[in-house]
Amino acid sequence: MVDAVVSFVLERLGDFLIQEAVFLGGVGNEAKLLQNELEWMQCYIANAEGKQVDDPMIRKWLSDITEISYDIEDVIDKIILQVHEKTTIDLDEEKKPAGGCFSPLSCTIFNKKSSPSNKGKEKVNLYNTGKGIEVLKIRINDLSRKREWYGLQDSAYKTEGKTNTTTTTLGRLKQLRRATSFSVEEKIVGFEDDANSLLAKLLDGESHRSVISIYGMGGLGKTTLAKKLYHTHGVKMKFIRRAWVSVSQDYNTCDLLIRIIHSFGIASMKTDDLKHMTEEELERYLYGSLRGRLYLIVIDDVWQKEAWESIKRAFPDSNNGSRVIITTRIREVAERSDERTHAHKLRFLRLDESWQLFCEKTFGNSDANDADVELKTLGMEMVQKCSGLPLAIVVLGGLLSTKSKLQEWKLVREHIWQNLRDDSIHVSYLLALSFNDLPYRLKLCFLYLSLFPEDFEIDVEKLLRLWIAEGFIPQERYQMLEDMAKNSFDDLVGRSLILIEKRSWGRVATCRVHDLFRDLAIQKAKELKFLHIYDQFKPLTGDPSRTSMCRRQAIYSAEDVCSSLRMSNANMRSILFFNPDKALEVTINFPVMCKFKFLRVLDFDGYDKRYSGVLYEGIGKLIYLKHLGLRKLGFSQLPSSILNLWRLQTLDLFSRGAEVELPNKVYKLQELRHLIGLFTGPLQIDSLTKLQSLKFVNNESWSKINPEKLVNLRELSIYSRLCTEEKVFRFDSVVKLPRLEQLSVRLSPGDSFASLQPLSSCSYLTDLRLLGNLKKLPEDIDVALPNLECLLLKNSWLRDDPMPLLGKLPCLMILYLHYNFYSGKRLTCRALSFPRLEILKLGRDDQLEKWRVEEGAMPRLRGLSMPQNSTLRIPERLRSIPPPAESEFETGDLDLLF
Q1: Tens digit of pLDDT for each residue in 769-779?
Q2: pTM score of the predicted model
């Protein structure tokens, strides 16, 4: 865990030394030595972290390394800040920083006119910096000596040859964790449908050896389900030879093969003889023993796809229907284990199943009819908090089975996750396994999730932008940071650490974290002094004294937010407000924020209450700011000082119906990637080459922009206001955006769209939402929009039936035909049309009478939504198709423009 912080700071220090080597001179040499010392220290961290559970000295040692790492990061930021404060804000255009982490510093050194006074100040800065680095070096050297004095190095590196690892806490937990095939749950609640589906796969007539992978979150019941299959009568009858082996994270291939041989019961030699065999000899032995025989093996708790790869040569494919079952938490392992793999994602328990399991463990029966009504009410409340995770429900039930008083149950409810951790060592260890397996950057991304409140629906796009602003996402050549962030998000989803909540227009819109994993993240984050949560209703999290070293703060509730901020760590990197009633108070009293000079992230989520004033001028002092979220606060103007925030990547000003005018020289914000709000008036953004999102720009303002330099713009939303004369929206300017993927245009009544034909130049366009009078679709729409996946048409008033033309779109997967999309009465979907369409929604249109769907049309349709009380006659074969989730069609801010 500490390795995440140290690695992150080492990378920052390395970047700093590379970019400022000329300026730093002798101080740079000192900083380089500091970097080397920290790198040596890092070599011991991984082993030390495994021992810190049992050794308080190691815990203290790791805590000191964490604090030094934070202090090193502070030194880097102070250097940049000091030089920036000496620099004239209004630099000539030729001297303006072009980008990069440390551009203002370089600009100052190489472009600023020298004077005796300036040189003197620079020497003072360098001198102070050198002294600060020297102190840090002494502290690190002191830690190295302590490691030797107290024998921490030997303690961290003890091997099994010297010490029995089962005597350590982690060793005991690993032994307890290892599942066996012979211990079977007598009564398993839920998963009947999963078991039947997988049983059919085990017993089908497929002759080739195949792999069945069961994957899902830790504690979900993967091993329990595998045991249920393993001991099913039909499986026992078919597979005479069966074996069960647990792999875990730190497996050894030879040991694994030996345990498999013993589990199959085919060993004709002693264990010591097997131990002297090479890996290849063990493979040959196992292969020969299984060749021609029908077998089943369960490989439980696999963490790397290489685990199966390393042993699968020992399992012959004799074309007799042999099977392999793999359980894993990681989707990639499940899906890519073998050429013939059936990956099954295990679901969470339904509420009725959760209640049944809880009653079995708590009351000894499945209905709890004899239990006290108040106890049952409290029990149901706690079961719902478990969100269908069997491990949490089983531990909770076992805990409450020993308590009969109402007050005891209330105490458990108040601190449910702490009680579960205290009652079962399995809970913390089982969840921590997933966290410990993460690379350091993903650890930081996961810890960041704990900033969000319990049961909070996290906006995925916003989350990715926050990760980028924090510096958790590496810049790779030829790849956008947003794509790298999405890869990290997908990795955490694939590892079952993030749960997808809603999908919208084919994309993941919101996510959440199971409360148990959130509790784990909070616990780990506090150990690292990574963040602090201020909540006046939970004193343990709201103690201001705990924020002395914390770098990030989330404010849920507070009587006096400004007072709590004054007591917070001045070196804070992020502050997120989840208290709508207090958001406006803080923005009005903004000077309190100016002490946080190192802030990267400042995010408010208001409550749609407009504030007609101008944002505080002092905002321009927060030169490190990369993410500024003022959503729903309704600012109509921004101060010119905001142009000093040259690092700013995201500026979110969206507030329903509140238009905002940006300062004239907004083009100075060259790092801007996402610009969100209802923008009107002059918008000088022509030169913002890194801009990826522009939402929402007034049509008049857009018409005056030259988009040729907006080469990275991916998402564009345009709106028009009511006016006296009718206007036609043309796509000529849009086609100059080479990477455009999503386009939304909302016209006012009376305005209309010109032909869609020019969009044929937008080869990346996959998402198109047009709200306004279109009247006609191009005949060759499949040529004009060959990659279109999602389409929304509203108030289009198409004269001709759109289905024959829309049906030609080769990639269309989601189609929403909203109100007044068509002025006719009949729709016809021709044979073989809509080859990839999965979801279709028809909005209310009283004129429609009949819908004809020819054979072979819409072969992949899985979701169909029709307006309530519709008189439209639906083809028989479509009536059984269920409606998709409403979130599939949420257009978000687009519906909230006015």
Answers
A1: 999 999 899 99
A2: 0.86
